[in-house]
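Researcher: Here's the sequence for the chain we discussed earlier.
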Amino acid sequence: MKRRLVILGDVQNVGYRPFLLGIAEALDIEHFFADNAIIDERRVVHIMVDSSQDKVDSFVEIVSSKYPENASVEEVEVEDYSGNVMKTESYYRYLTAMQLHKIATYGGIMIEKQDDTLREIRVVGEKVDVVGEKVDAVGAKVDVVGEKVDAVGAKVDVVGAKVDAVGAKVDVVGEKVDAVGAKVDVVGAKVDAVGEKVDAVGEKVDAVGEKVDAVGKKQDKTIEEIKITREGFTLEIRSVGEKVDNVHGEQRKTNEILEERFGRMQKDIEKIKIALTKAGIEI
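Model: Thanks. This is the structure I predict for it:
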């Protein structure tokens, strides 16, 4: 069974042909060929295989799903093929020769690039020498500036001595200020003592005020309790009066009911007497 495959995308110079050869050898495919090509201005890998159907189907399935690490596959086209296909071991020798040729070609290019690099290094070295001379000139100027800095430093030392003298005078003034400060501290201590006595008197006044406030609060509380008690008595007296009135009202109603019942009983007794008399019974 023969098949032709075309792999499209960024697939050249990424080790695709050795990758495909490894798959073909792993599946024991007898005839195999792969090469880089350009189809419709697109870079592709062109493959032909010839073996049993199961091996070819397995090869197509693997190639359609697995790619070299640096490859970017856009599409894998598969179609029937009827031409001759190189033996796999022959393709191995062909690919080896192609790789050696590429190494030799790239090796020559690398040697040319190495020569160019050496020439550039020489040019850079010459430029470094020029820069070194300029650096030396700058160094001489720096030495001159250093001498001027030393002269300025000597003048600074003179100014520093004068500053030290002024500092000594400032120290004397500081000692006098410290003595005045000590006297001020003594006066402040006396003021603090007077303040403490004033605070003590104030605390006593506050204590007396608190006691007066407490007596006033107790008096207000007693007056309030008296008011509450008087109001309570008044309410209780009113409640008792209302209860007495209710009792009198109930008693009047009871008397009226009893009088009504007695009246009815008398009428019933009279009727019984009349009935007995008519019946010939004397009472």
